[in-house]
Batch of 3 targets.
Target 1
Amino acid sequence: MSKPKVLFVCLGNICRSPTAEAVFRHKARLAGLDVEIDSAGTGGWHRGELPDERAREAGTRRGYSFAGQTARPVEQDDFEIFDFILAMDRRNRAELLSKAPENARHKVKLFLEYGTSSEAEVPDPYYGGARGFEHVLDLIEDAGDGLIRTLQQSP
């Protein structure tokens, strides 16, 4: 496999998927993996905005950088470009599958499939309190470790 390309996707690309991008970028660097990493939203209403301040604060406390990130919607080209298109929840996954060409549908998965948590979805912390952002980080760190192991085992 050439350099793997991973796209994390949530609803607006301001909380969960930019957090996954920041965490996974850090973990891939520590693991010595050369991976292209990006994030996007199924909706485009936050285009150009920075990640949510609460997400950035929670992630920064754990040592992650959100530098250079701005929200963008999923584009049709993403289905061709990325090898892994990882949705944060079932609604995001369904939306992605409705747009994916037949030959790219196998790339679309729930991100937490790579984790050890019994939870299937990364809950949207937008309307919750600070604890929600910490929980999102816990889930993303765990699934990120699993994705690292998957990429390390790929030929």
Target 2
Amino acid sequence: MEKTFVLVKPDGVQRGLIGEILARLEKRGLKLVAAKFLQVPVSLAEKHYTVHQGKPFYDGLIKYITAAPVMAMVFEGPFAVQAVRQTMGLTDPLKAEPGTIRHDFASRISRNLTHASDSPENAESEISLWFDGSEIVNWIKADEDWVIGDN
């Protein structure tokens, strides 16, 4: 089963959208296997955004992600990376499809509420950056076979 990393960014936390985002992902059939609420240290922010180091917006990203608490989560399910990204919508809320989280709740790319891994490989890397292996809970949901089972 594929796992993916999801981060409710400071704007999503400040606006009280953790529950809405979590609910939409669970309703999609994804299973929450790890979660933590934290104030991001600068060192973690720099590691998370290493790919953007040297770009004009890098300093702003670091300032933003460390400005207020975030909710870091790991979800599991078939094609979890793709399912989460589809549920979130395009990075630019003005281009996101109606019904996606970003379309429904965000209005600017700089305040797009969430981060979600863009590939299974990046999901593994991000999960290991934000979570210790012991923080991932392997469990079976009572309705799992009805949601993701095969015929």
Target 3
Amino acid sequence: MPSRVRPLSAGELAEVLDRIDSAESGGRAAEPNDVRAAVRHFLAVLTQRAPGKSVEVRVPPYAAAQCIEGARHTRGTPPAVVETGAATWLALARGTENFARGVGDGRIRASGERSDLSAYLPLL
């Protein structure tokens, strides 16, 4: 769970994002370990900035995290769920994507109270 994972250092994050950007600009898929590291980093940052257990943010197959104060979830489906792919999550975290636009075009599935993460993004 990313809340137990420390965010990357600034230098580590820069290196990972540079490798991801380089691969994508060259028409290649980024290394899964780099994508996983970046996804987990930004989920960890989100949980630090918005601690709580009322929203579960899922970025399959890489990670999921609970955040934002409110009704605590301990079993089953949490009161609110946000799910998206890694590329969209990284774009949201980096500020190159808009949450409402992602929900509108179906790249982000958000349901439940407090599932709008706009106030917490970007995370850089």
